[in-house]
Amino acid sequence: MEEQHEPALGVIGLGNIARLHCDRLQKAGYDNVVTAGLDVDPDARGRFAAQYDATVYERQADLYADVDAVLVTTPNKFHEEYVVGALEAGLDVFVEKPLAHTVESAEGIAEAAREAEGFCMVGFHNRFRDPVQVLVSYRDDGTMGELDHIEANYLRRRGVPGRGSWFTRRALAGGGALIDIGVHAIDLSLYLLDFPEVVEVSGQTRATFGTRAEYAYVNMWGEDHGSSGFDVDDSASAFIRCADGSTIALEVAWASNRPDSQEYVVRGSGAGARLELSDDEMELYETVSTGVDHHRTSQIETAGEDAHGIELEKFVESVATGEPPGTNTVEQALAVQRVLDAIYRSSEEGRAISLAE
């Protein structure tokens, strides 16, 4: 059997997110897999080269010629440029969520991916969490029965990321809390429901805290440059209706006067479940007639493996074998992007948005 060699990976966008991915790859034992990097900032290139002993580039074509695949970790606005360029160069691609900053840009990526020889995997790491995989197995073996509703929450008490950074600027990010963390909640909910067709979306976005000159917080990811650098949403509520009758109730917030929560309550005809992803907790709810009719609540314990690391390992293995990962596809990410776009349009227009074809 021919020995399988590690592929050479290039990283595009050499900021904090890139370093998080590279550190996880090293922790997983891929010490030499990242060989190159690209960024428009010479200081970022210098730091990356020194930290990871990588060759750094200014021109895309030079990077593409030197690697087998790329990780795209730029601000959302630049995803399309780099993903499409890498796919057209015959490379495999991992791109961080969301797929793009607008639905039009996401559709451009999807069109390129359909025609490409390589594959594109989108960074929705929550799918790889242990309790999520347990719940999916229960769904598939019939334990859950028919899933019909999910309450999806991704809420922070105070968690606006660095006002004035690209995260809080619509032109670069495409939106705020909804497109940053709400995208995870929408993707995971649709994943658990096995991606039914979404037919209608009603939503409301808000900018309640990030626009305040005096924004009280305990800690912040990045530096706070004040409200003048904030022109996006910091919370959203939405209701999503699917063609098969299943529904999703969504609550998202970078900042809110309530405790943090990454809780998903899943309702099925055979059983229900509660996931709390902040600590990988899971409870299974059943009502059975063994002996006498009674409720049965089960605590599900898992090892709590690092979902980011598992996701990246799957990508590297797929690049090495030439077999697409079969999950986290561009078409699924495009479906999520269309829901994001519909929520923003619903909020702006004050009405439900139909997505039915």
Write the layout of secondary structure elements.
Blueprint: E1 9-12, H1 16-27, E2 34-38, H2 42-52, E3 55-57, H3 60-64, E4 69-72, H4 79-88, E5 92-96, H5 103-115, E6 120-123, H6 130-140, E7 147-155, H7 170-173, H8 177-192, E8 198-206, E9 235-242, E10 247-253, E11 263-268, E12 272-276, E13 281-288, E14 294-300, H9 307-321, H10 330-349, E15 353-354
Parallel strand pairs: 1-2, 1-4, 2-3, 4-5, 5-6, 7-10
Antiparallel strand pairs: 7-11, 8-9, 8-15, 9-10, 11-12, 12-13, 13-14
Give a brief rundown of this model.
With 357 residues, the chain is an alpha/beta fold.
Report on the architecture of this protein.
α2 (42-52) links the parallel β2 (34-38) and β3 (55-57). Helix content is 33%, strand content 24%. The protein has 357 residues and is α/β, with parallel strands linked by helices. The model has no long low-confidence stretch (mean pLDDT 96). The chain has 2 domains: 9-126 and 310-327, 3-Layer(aba) Sandwich (Rossmann fold); 127-304 and 337-354, Dihydrodipicolinate Reductase, domain 2, CATH 3.30.360.10.
